[in-house]
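To: structure subgroup
Subject: Chain for Friday's discussion

All,

I'm putting the inputs and outputs inline so they're searchable in the archive.
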Amino acid sequence: MTEPVPAPARRRYGGLVGAALVTVLLALYVGLVVVRAVQLIGTGNGVGVGLGVALLVLPLLVIALVAREWWLAMDVRAMADALAAEGGLPVDDLPRSPGGRVDREAARERFGVARSAVEAAPQDWRAWYHLAFAYDAAGDRKAARAALRSASRLHRGRDLPG
């Protein structure tokens, strides 16, 4: 079997640059919303004040959600680096259709192995990380994200909720 060739740095960081650009654009939008909210509150009109306060809450929620996603992304990167150093990164070698779709039966088999590893070692972030990629290959992105969050909690030294 041949060794995987690392992606060129330009391609490897393309997603990061895109995410940073979208975050900057979102920050500009949030800034404009805050300005409008303050203007509405400044009207002194009951409806304007109510809308202004509501518009101030929304940017706080957006900032919290974006920060949460960046935190997860940084931790997933740290976990990937740790697994790469150990030689334990998940390998995307599932058979695919000519159109590029993953063979669902092979993905289910891989998922079963990953799920068993989590059941055997529920406090191992590596097992959860591999489970996340097995979920993703099986087409369940929501469960994949939840498994990545579990891996991240364990990686940062926090136990999973009971």
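Points worth raising on Friday:
The longest helix spans residues 46-86.
The helical segments are 9-12, 14-42, 46-86, 104-120, 125-138, 141-155.

D.
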